[in-house]
Design goal:
single chain; 228 residues; mainly beta; Porin; eight-stranded antiparallel β-barrel; 9 strands; 14% helix; elongated
């Protein structure tokens, strides 16, 4: 069998699977999983100012540097019910991974003490349950464009460690919040049971302004779902 014939047969199988009717048309229960990248809208310059203000209580900061790794692997699990090919509702759990900020430098303490090395680290973690409404527009037998909107019941946690010379101190801050999110995506239906999707979502003002601060979180993911 030539490569051209093999390719044609493969395309024919895909089209025949789609033509048996999309799984979305019949509605019903489904479940799935997604994986991708999440990125909170953290500002490295603002974090640098906070660290400098904190260290200025001890002495004069002579030199320093910092890094911010604000993108991490994210995953979610979800289940839902599709009323028709246009409307569905979902409930799920999403973990956005960890954003890491690191700073280090030298401090000239007040008084006769010599110059001391200083470091600061902070890990930002967000996870929570979601309640979502989904609206879709079918494009032919295989594809759709869809939008999502819902509420994230978020648990936000910040773990920080401050060290000056051989002395260190750690602290944790946490908050629970209900935050609005929305997103857009495209879907591919394979036969009556399987569906694949590429989605972008933005979660607004995640966290608590007093306890952990608030930030938007962007998420890009690939997902697969199966109709029961």
């Amino acid at each position: 069998m030539s490569k051209r014939i093999g390719w044609a047969v493969g395309v024919g199988l895909v089209l025949s699977m789609a033509s048996t009717s999309s799984w979305a048309e019949g509605g019903g229960w489904y479940f799935g999983v997604t994986g991708g990248q999440a990125e909170p809208d953290l500002n490295q310059a603002v974090l640098d100012e906070i660290v400098l203000d904190g260290f200025s209580v001890v002495g004069t900061v002579l030199d320093g540097s910092s890094t911010l790794d604000d993108s991490d692997t994210s995953f979610s699990l979800f289940g839902g019910y599709r009323f028709s090919q246009y409307v569905a509702v979902e409930a799920g759990y999403v973990d956005f991974g960890t954003a890491e900020y690191r700073a280090s430098g030298l401090i000239d303490p007040f008084g006769p003490q010599p110059t001391l090395p200083a470091t600061y680290s902070a890990d930002f973690e967000v996870a929570g349950f979601t309640a979502t409404a989904v609206g879709a527009i079918p494009i032919g037998a295989m594809f759709d464009v869809h939008g999502r909107a819902g509420i994230l019941f978020a648990d936000t946690e910040i773990n920080e460690v401050v060290a000056i010379s051989n002395a260190s101190e750690s602290a944790s801050y946490s908050a629970s919040s209900e935050d609005f999110f929305y997103g857009l995506g495209v879907g591919l239906q394979m036969g009556q049971n399987w569906s694949f999707s590429l989605d972008w979502q933005q979660f607004k003002d995640v966290g608590d302004d007093d306890e952990t601060g608030e930030t938007d979180v962007n998420r890009l993911s690939l997902g697969v779902s199966y109709k029961l």
